[in-house]
Every structure is written in structure tokens, then in C-alpha cells.
Amino acid sequence: MKKMSRRSMMLGLPASLLLPARRAKAAGNQLGLIFVAQSTCPYCQSIAPVLKQLSDAGVADVMLASMDRRPVPPFVRFQDGHAHPLTAHFRSVPQVLVYNANLDQVTHVVGGVRNPRRYILRLSHALQQSAAM
């Protein structure tokens, strides 16, 4: 039997938890995520692959706002988090901002990772709520 690590658990969650948000996006909502992170943060490193999966699945576009001006794999492209008007005020990472293009505003901020499963659930609820607006 294969031992399940925290990372493999997180990588297996998004597909099942975030399908309602994907259906809502297909109905016309345009969602984006702004990932406020830094390359040295272990929590940022653990959720980055999950956010990449969401982007690859078409649930939401993801922009990395790097607070240390370095990429957070698997994201290689980033914007300077200190220079971006929506992220410059953040002093702790990780933060994920849910941006709704139909409303042209950030609707939710999901911060901190204490429990990976709880974090994914909070992000899923935020995406679903934003998509319904």
C-alpha cells in the first residue's frame, strides 16, 4: 500500500472539491486567483502545485505576486508583489485573492495554511461564492 504524504493528499483534492466552481465559470463567470507568496515559504511551496492544477483545469487563471521577487515552482512567471496595487499591503504569506472579472474586484481573500484540507475547502467555498456573484 502506498503511503500518502501531505503533498499527495493536497494534489488529489482539487479535482473533486472544485468542480462546482468550474461549472460556474463555464456559465460565464471569469475568475482569477492572485497568489501572494514567496519562494522560501514552505506553505507557499505546498499550495503552489494545487493552484497550478486549478489553472491547468481552467477553474481560474492564477497570477503569482512574489514578495521576494522570485518564482515559486511550478510558477515561473511572476509579478513583484510589493509593486502590485492589490498585494503591496500584505505582510504575511500565503494569501490567495479571488478576483471576479465580471465585478472587476477581489471578492475573497483566503490566507494562511494551518490545515491543508481545510485550506482547500476554504478556497473551494470562496471560488464557488465568487462564481455565484
UniProtKB/TrEMBL annotation:
Record Pfam families: TraF
The protein's name: Conjugal transfer protein TraF
InterPro entries: Thioredoxin-like_sf (IPR036249), TraF/TrbB (IPR039555)
Keywords for the protein's UniProt record, in alphabetical order: Plasmid, Signal
Organism: Yoonia rhodophyticola
Cleavable signal peptide: 1-26
Gene3D superfamilies linked: Glutaredoxin
Gene assigned in the entry: traF
Xref: SUPFAM superfamilies: Thioredoxin-like (SSF52833)
